[in-house]
Write a structure and sequence with these properties.
The protein is an alpha+beta fold and about 200 residues long. It has one domain (about 1-145): Gcn5-related N-acetyltransferase (GNAT) (Aminopeptidase). Helices cover about 30% and strands about 30% of the residues. The chain contains 6 helices and 8 strands, in the order H-E-E-H-H-H-E-E-E-H-E-H-E-E. It has helices spanning about 1-5, 30-40, 40-45, 60-75, 125-140, 155-160; strands at about 15, 20-25, 80-85, 90-100, 105-115, 145-150, 165-175, 180-190. The chain has an 8-stranded mixed β-sheet with strand order 1-2-3-4-5-6-8-7, sandwiched between helices. The protein is globular and about 40 Å long. The structure holds coenzyme A. The site of coenzyme A (COA) has 20 residues, from helix 3, strand 5, helix 5 and helix 6.
Length: about 200
């Protein structure tokens, strides 16, 4: 059972480019655009995210975030991406792959957010579709999971369009907006059709 012991060597997050979006890992030079977009989208994002630490948009907190991302990439447990619009290269949102588990599971979790002014333009659907080959073909994982609140229609629609299947319902699964909330569980596996 060779695959059970497989350890994929250090794999930096690649730059992933399509006609619509470009995904790459964040650096300190992204701080100004990131904090501006997250700050301007605060009330749009807050109902769907864990409570933001009080200093979340500050430069030291961003630096700490980058250090955590770096550690996760080195340990091959997670890959963070910022999402830019192809053409004007504006930062539009973020996408993270986290909780990478090897062994018999070979799975990882997907999270994403879009700046309010860029939402509803198909950009995160394009970003999620673009990251799937990295997950299955480069990282050689078997399963990509995502969870969302049952009333998050945009997120549900996005996952369906990107080829995910609804698999379950987890009670009080994640602490979102300060409360343990029920979630729908979605996943795509490596041999599912890719849209
Ligand atoms: C969820 C989110 C990432 C989607 O990103 P996006 O770039 O706006 O998504 P897209 O434009 O690619 O696709 C969204 C789809 O949902 C649909 N949609 C949007 N709002 C909707 C609503 N209120 N009801 C039903 N469908 C909705 C869009 O019409 C689109 O589907 P379509 O192409 O068939 O028309 C973004 O809305 C967001 O960041 N929301 C707040 C934070 C959040 O929910 N994070 C995810 C937590 S799981």
């Amino acid at each position: 059972m060779e695959f059970l012991r497989s350890v994929v060597p250090f794999q930096p997050a690649p730059v992933i480019s399509t006609d619509t979006v470009i995904l790459r890992s964040p650096g300190m030079a992204d701080y100004a655009a990131w904090s501006e977009l997250r700050g301007a989208s605060r009330s749009f994002l807050m109902p769907w995210e864990p409570v933001w630490p009080i200093d979340d948009l500050t430069k030291p907190a961003f630096r700490r975030r980058l250090r955590r991302y770096q550690r996760e990439m080195q340990e091959a447990t997670g890959y963070p991406f910022l999402v830019f619009r192809t053409g004007d290269l504006n930062l539009v949102g973020g996408l993270t792959l986290s909780h990478i588990v090897r062994g018999v599971t070979q799975s990882c979790s997907l999270g994403y957010w879009m700046g309010e002014r860029y939402a509803g333009k198909g950009l995160m659907t394009a970003a999620v579709k673009a990251v799937i080959p990295f997950v299955f073909d480069t990282l050689k994982l078997h399963r990509l999971e995502a969870a969302c609140l049952p009333h998050n229609s945009a997120s549900i629609r996005l996952l369906e369009k990107a080829g995910f299947t609804r698999e379950g319902y987890a009670r009080r699964y994640l602490n979102i907006d300060g409360r343990w909330q029920d979630h729908l569980l979605f996943a795509i596996v490596s041999d599912d059709p890719r849209p």
